[in-house]
Amino acid sequence: MAKGQIVAYCNAQIGNVIITQEQIAERIAQLARQITTDYEGKQLVLVGVLTGSFVFLSDLMRQLDRPCEVDFLDASSYGNNTVSSGEVVIGKGLNLSLTGKDVLIVEDIVDSGRTISELVRLIAAHRPASIKVCTLLSKTARRERTVELNYIGFEIPDYFVVGYGLDYAQCFRNLPFIAVLNEDAAAPKLPTNE
Ligand code: IMP
Ligand code: MG
Fold first, then answer.
1. Is 84 in the pocket of ligand 1 (CB under 6 A)?
2. What's the pTM?
3. CA 76 to ligand 2 center in whole angstroms
4. Are 145 and 114 a contacting pair, CB within 8 Å?
5. CATH fold for the domain made of 3-183
6. 81 — alpha (psi -120 to 50), left (phi > 0) or beta?
7. Atom of ligand 1 nearest to the CA of 114
8. Could you say which DSSP state residue 91 is in?
9. Which ligand is the nearest neighbour of the Cα of 139?
10. Which residues are catalytic?
11. What is the DSSP letter of 113?
12. Which of 41, 85, 130, 176 is within CB 3.0–4.6 Å of 21 for a Cys-Cys bond?
């Protein structure tokens, strides 16, 4: 399906584009420059939070002028809803040893802060040299836990957003921009080939 067709099919379910493809690219370049500077002489390991962060992580890591390792953890709290269940479920664990290394957790979005605070606690048990958090998006208005976010791409208002890795019921991850989900729309239906 061509990109134009994907966007057309999504139109009923996505609202305004709040962050464009160009804005994302520009901000990632800035974040990568900062991280490159901050991690000089360190043993950097990027730990992505599946599934949403894989798009952001892959763009960010290719802008880093530093050697780094990459691993992924699977954490979810939403199921197929737009409201978190409040319980963080860890699926896939880590493959790499993090002991003595400088871990940068890469998230798509920090909302209540439950997921990231659980992950920081879990990763701390591996005794890394340092733990920092880099998130593309932050909804500070909805925070329930105090969490230190070291690198933030964009602060956004309290909307449920999709695109650039972020999903609603597993759809819309492949949109190249960040848009607001139209909550009045029916659950996403995949187009048929007819
Ligand atoms: P938290 O535990 O409430 O901070 O939620 C964090 C996780 O919820 C993120 O890693 C996302 O997977 C998901 N999430 C939170 N807000 C949104 C959103 O607006 N769109 C899509 N996923 C979201
Ligand atoms: Mg997530």
1. yes
2. 0.88
3. 6
4. yes
5. Rossmann fold (3.40.50)
6. beta
7. 2
8. -
9. 1
10. 111
11. S
12. 176
